[in-house]
Write a structure and sequence with these properties.
The structure holds 2 protein chains of 2 kinds.
Chain A: E1 24-25, H1 32-41, H2 46-61, E2 85-86, H3 100-108, H4 111-118, E3 121-126, E4 129-135, E5 145-147, H5 149-155, H6 157-160, H7 174-182, E6 188-191, E7 201-206, E8 213-214, E9 217-222, E10 227-235, E11 243-245, E12 248-253, E13 258-265, E14 271-281, E15 286-293, E16 298-301, E17 304-307, E18 313-322, E19 327-336, E20 342-351, E21 356-365, E22 373-382, E23 388-397, E24 403-412, H8 415-423, H9 428-444, H10 449-466
Parallel strand pairs in A: 3-7, 6-9, 7-10, 8-11, 9-12, 10-13, 11-14, 12-14, 13-15, 14-16, 14-17, 15-18, 16-19, 17-19, 18-20, 19-21, 20-22, 21-23, 22-24
Antiparallel strand pairs in A: 1-2, 3-4, 5-6
Chain B: E1 3-13, E2 16-27, E3 31-35, H1 42-49, E4 55-64, E5 67-68, H2 74-80, E6 82-85, H3 97-106, H4 117-130, H5 148-162, E7 166-170, H6 178-191, E8 197-202, H7 206-210, E9 215-220, E10 223-228, H8 231-239, H9 242-248
Helix pairs in contact in B: 3-5, 5-6
The chains are: A alpha/beta, B alpha/beta.
């Protein structure tokens, strides 16, 4: 078991910054020239530039989704954001070759140490580009590809071009269009048929610059019968002004494959985290999203699975923790598109102080399908009287032999519980931490050990900081 | 001499005065029973001593071994050695008994020290055996779905593990059948020692057949109105509380 002290990701640990010089800077604001600049720096093919420019048009045309989402989106000023910042180095395969300022950042976050301990491969992204990218020896020989999108589209077009932008079309939403216009960094992964990775691949996303937008793009293709676990972590220092993180993540799980995607989002509380994540699951494939949202000012994220093949299985396990000044607007989408497909959604949210947690779910089972099943559980825990939670489940089930089970609970930590636990000698903060850990315990047990330990510690720290 | 000393204690809840200049001293090594009719303020007394934030102390002082405890947070008072066995133990879903007691013990250690798991479980199981509790109990959520008897046993398991200097038992006999009462009382009797004081709050004399008190106090309208030896409990049982009212309610 990994001792919690060996992990170094927490809200305060991420709050530091070393000065950095950038060789490439697309300037402030967004227009076609900025998009051309990014594409040019990356020496991209013509079709990619076209893809980006079309996406920019779509982005500019689409309104903010404030008719259903929070008005806080209007506070994002797209004109003051910098869309591309890079030091102009290729991702190194050795930490020794990573520039000191960047290396120090990742060392302080504990990434090289985790890599040695339990990871099959790591990519560490600093602002717009990866500074480091490496895999354990042997995986390359087995045909595993773990690169950034620039390298993926350039060096392996026959693999990645087919699925790029297909699971999540550019026009899916305003932010997927934004990402498609200015994407940089992220992971392109291919796991050949039958290859089962025993250790996870990890990406770590670090925002270092103020007034900056990070737009990484990830595409994971698990070929038939393969298995992969991918984990991502993220932090940024606390800036005076807001920062934007808007990623697009597409997963393709081919016949009989298993993909597990784990996120521990711990952005500082001025980051708008607006991410589109979706998977396609073919016959008998399994996709599981484990999604933990702790930081950020506003997170909007609804990982989904399109269950395209017979007996495909999709799962979303999510934990959201909203402290004062935060809004976690999260949920899940399950689109059943074949017979005998099953999906499971378990979402737990904790609201502290004036924090707000929203759950939005979408489950669709069309009329012609048979023997599909969905189970949805969403539970909310309110810590203080001013804490908020709201739930918007949208379940469309047609046809016979399909079944859906939906349960939702809201509970509150009571003053009686806190007094009882304090009478045994626990401080108010410790008592609340225990209640919160108790609330998420059964879900955390499903997580890989390294992440459950880390998550419990993060929750404890949030609780300690929230009690006056 | 070490004692829990209550001097002229007055306390309100929501502007209603419940405790009225109450005086009482429980020396270590002694068991004091507090008896009285419903509404006399017995449970309020236990909560005020434990530092419940809903009560406002308007007068008086409470000294635990000479140290003032009023105004301290409930957890500080608890760590100083005061334990309250609740009349209605609170349910906390998802928190196992084993983890809860461990966290409570951990909270008493200085920074940087931690409980050794092996020793802890050995100790826990020994105490559970004494209370006739199944090992499976440790992984159940605290009081969640417990029967009345199970809840009370769980209270005494915590009490025996935390080794307090002063134990307040609030209506421990309510919800217990006779077998459970015997087991729990035996547990309390095992804990009786020269360096520990007990305040046993009860409405009925029955419990005092099993936990024999050194002193019996009668509480009425927010104060102690009469004290005596254990025969007082029998007298109350026989005569009821009406004579107390007539004699002291003036």
């Amino acid at each position: 078991m990994i001792q919690s002290t060996e992990f170094d990701i927490d809200t305060e640990k991420g709050n530091f910054r070393f000065d950095t010089d950038y060789a490439f800077d697309a300037g402030v604001g967004l227009n076609a020239d900025v998009v051309r600049y990014i594409s040019n720096v990356k020496e991209e093919k013509e079709w990619i530039l076209d893809f980006r420019l079309k996406a920019l048009e779509t982005f500019l045309k689409k309104p903010l989704p404030t008719h259903w989402a929070t008005e806080d989106l209007k506070n994002i000023n797209f004109d003051v954001i910098r869309y591309y910042l890079a030091k102009g180095q290729k991702p190194s395969r050795s930490w020794d070759d990573v520039p000191d300022d960047v290396k120090n950042t990742f060392e302080r976050l504990g990434i090289p140490e985790q890599e040695r301990k339990f990871l099959a491969g790591v990519e560490a992204q600093f602002d717009s580009e990866a500074a480091y990218s490496n895999m354990k020896e042997g995986l390359e020989k087995e045909g595993v590809i773990f690169v950034g999108p620039t390298e993926g589209l350039r060096d392996h077009p026959e693999i990645f071009k087919k699925w790029f932008g297909k699971v999540i079309p550019t026009s899916d939403n305003k932010f997927s269009a934004l990402n498609s216009a200015v994407f940089s960094g992220g992971s392109f992964i291919y796991i050949p048929p039958g290859v089962k990775l025993k250790q996870p691949l990890q990406a770590y996303f670090r925002i270092n610059a103020e007034n900056f937008g990070q737009f990484e793009r990830t595409l994971i293709i698990a070929d038939e019968g393969s298995e992969v676990t991918y984990m991502e972590g993220c932090t940024a220092p606390k800036f005076e002004t807001s920062t934007l993180h808007s990623a697009v993540v597409e997963l393709v799980a081919l016949k009989g494959s298993k993909v597990q995607y784990i996120t521990v989002q711990n952005w500082s509380n001025n980051v708008y985290n607006l991410v589109t994540k979706r998977a396609m699951a073919e016959e008998e494939a399994e996709v599981r999203w484990i999604d933990c949202n702790i930081g950020s000012r506003l997170t909007m994220k609804y990982p989904g699975v399109i269950l395209r093949g017979r007996k495909a299985r999709g799962e979303v396990l999510s934990i959201a923790l909203s402290n004062s000044g935060q809004h976690q607007d999260t949920g899940a989408k399950m689109v059943h598109a074949a017979d005998e497909t099953t999906s499971n959604i378990i979402a737990k949210s904790i609201s502290i102080g004036t924090g707000r947690s929203s759950y939005r779910g979408l489950v669709r089972m069309p009329k012609h399908l048979k023997n599909c099943k969905n189970n949805t559980e969403c539970d909310a825990l309110l810590i203080n009287s001013e804490s908020q939670t709201d739930t918007y489940p949208a379940i469309t089930v047609q046809g016979e032999g399909n079944s859906v089970q939906h349960e939702a609970t809201v509970s509150k930590v009571s003053a009686d519980q806190i007094f009882y636990m304090q009478q045994r000698g626990l401080s108010e903060g410790e008592a609340m931490s225990l209640c919160v850990n108790g609330f998420v315990n059964d879900l955390i047990r499903e997580f890989p050990m390294e992440y459950s330990v880390e998550l419990k510690r993060l929750i404890d720290m949030e609780m300690e900081g929230s009690v006056g | 001499m070490n004692s829990l000393q209550i001097k002229n204690l007055s306390a309100n809840i929501a502007d209603k005065q419940i405790l009225k200049e109450l005086c009482l001293e429980i020396p270590q090594g002694e068991v004091h029973a507090i008896m009285g009719p419903n509404g006399s303020g017995k449970s309020t007394l236990s909560k005020v001593l434990a530092g419940h934030p809903d009560y406002e102390v308007t007068n008086g002082e409470v000294l635990m071994d000479g140290v003032k405890i009023l105004g301290q947070d409930a957890d500080e008072i608890a760590r100083s050695g005061l334990f309250l066995a609740f009349q209605y133990p609170v349910e906390v879903a998802g928190v196992s008994i084993a983890n809860f007691i461990r966290a409570a013990l951990q909270a008493r250690l200085p920074d940087g020290e931690s409980i050794k798991a092996v020793d802890y479980y050995k100790d826990l199981y020994a105490h559970m055996d004494d209370l006739g509790m199944d090992r499976k109990f440790t992984s159940r959520s605290l009081n969640d779905g417990f029967s009345g008897g199970e809840k009370k046993r769980c209270e005494f398991l915590q009490m025996s593990m935390l080794k307090p200097h002063y134990c307040i038992l609030d209506e421990t006999d309510s919800g217990l059948d006779i077998d459970a009462l015997r087991i729990v009382s035996a547990g309390v009797n095992r804990m009786r020692s020269d360096d520990r004081g007990f305040m046993v709050i009860t409405h009925y004399q029955r419990l005092l057949e099993y936990i024999e008190p050194d002193v019996v106090h009668v509480m009425w309208d927010g104060k102690i109105v009469h004290s005596g030896d254990k025969s007082l409990a029998l007298e109350l049982e026989a005569k009821g509380y009406d004579w107390i009212k007539e004699e002291f309610a003036a």
